[in-house]
Amino acid sequence: MTHIDDADTKRANLRYIRTAMNEPMLERGHELALARRWQKRKDKKALHELVRSYTRLVVAIASRFRHYGLPMGDLIQEGNIGLMQAAEKFDPARELRFSTYATWWIRAAVQDYVLRNWSIVRTGTTSAQKSLFFNLRRLRAKIENRKEREGLDEKDVRAIAKELNVNATDVRHMEGRLSGVDQSLNATIGENGEDEWQSLLPDSRPNPEDIVVGMKDAAARTKWLNEALRELSERERKIIRQRHLSDETVTLEDLGKQLGVSKERIRQLESRAMEKMRVSLSRSAGGFEGLGISR
Fold first, then answer.
1. What distances in angstroms separate CA 111 from CA 70, 107, 140, one per listed residue?
2. How far from 146 is each of 25, 38, 41, 124, 294, CA to CA, in Å?
3. Rounded CA separation 239/227 (Å)
4. For 130-146, b where at least 16 C-beta lie within 10 A, e where not — what string?
5. How far apart are CA 166 and CA 230, in angstroms?
6. DSSP characters for the chain?
7. Distance separating alpha carbons of residues 229 and 237, to the nearest angstrom
8. Which residues on neighbouring strands pair with residue 189, listed in sequence order?
9. How far apart are CA 254 and CA 179, in angstroms?
10. For the CA atoms of 237, 241, 244, 249, what is the dihedral angle to 10 degrees?
11. Separation of alpha carbons 5 and 172, rounded Å
12. Contact 79/55 with Cβ under 8 angstroms?
């Protein structure tokens, strides 16, 4: 999925990038002082100065993800969100440069945006898939340059899987995802462009005739089952319903407690009731097939 910015958007992005690159660099001491003022006194002026000074870092990181076909302005804004999250959580007591800490947050925010918007199909839902998504192109290009040919063979796939600590199946799957592009089902095909892709998709749903036959069969099975149940005693019906006709099967022990008998007695009653139903259903429909009751 590729997005092309219009002229006004490009000019706005360039103005923002120039402004970000012209922000003054912070001395280490001043940077930590700003962070302490925000942490201890919630000084917004200090926070804004700290964040503005590192928008250049956001631009630098966002620019590394331009080749995914997403708007540069959006990549930068997502990176800015990561930068503000870093400023919120930064602990100056660790004596760490803010840029080192913020880099992880900015990259994580941009990568998450890319994964959510690169394709209409969700990509990179696990850590292994994320690693593949952001490293496969680089590793593939490295292999192809070395061998002076395009494409990956099975040996290449295994090498990439080993380097990224993923399985080869994931590598092959991601290779296919990155090689393809999203395509609308309404895209036209053929010489005259009269047909759409969706017109070639098979309909796996049952046809009207199958639906009607199924409804009639279901009604007949329900009738036979109810007739068989009426031939049982009240206690036998309770056992059959709770053991075979409910969403959650009740154990023999629990039924025994309900009816005040042992679980072995419940087993005997169940067996006798099933035999009665088998005889009844054999008269009506030739057995248990399709009724969801096992012998």
1. 11, 6, 20
2. 40, 51, 56, 28, 63
3. 16
4. bbbbbebeebbeebeee
5. 59
6. ------HHHHHHHHHHHHHHHTSPPPPHHHHHHHHHHHHHH--HHHHHHHHHHTHHHHHHHHHTTGGG---HHHHHHHHHHHHHHHHHH--GGG---HHHHHHHHHHHHHHHHHHHHS-SS----SHHHHHHHHHHHHHHHHHHHHHTSSS--HHHHHHHHHHHT--HHHHHHHHHHHH-----TT-EESSS--EEGGGGS---SPPHHHHHHHHHHHHHHHHHHHHHHHTS-HHHHHHHHHHHSSSSPPPHHHHHHHHTS-HHHHHHHHHHHHHHHHHHHHHHTSSSTTTT---
7. 6
8. 195
9. 57
10. -130
11. 33
12. no
Q: Position 260: which residue type?
A: G
Q: Angle 252-259/263-284 helices, nearest 10 degrees?
A: 100
> Which tens digit of pLDDT belongs to each residue from 55-113?
999 999 999 998 888 899 999 999 999 999 999 999 988 878 999 999 999 999 999 89
What whole-number distance in Å separates Cα of residue 53 and Cα of residue 63?
Answer: 17
To which residue do tokens 């005739």 refer?
209
Locate 96 and state its tokens. Answer: 């760490």
Q: Residue 58: name the closest of 27, 20, 95 by CA.
A: 20
**Tell me: the pLDDT tens digits for 2-35?**
556 778 888 999 999 999 999 999 999 999 999 9
Buried b (16+ CB within 10 A) or exposed e, 178-201: beeeeeeeeeeeeeeeeeeeeeee
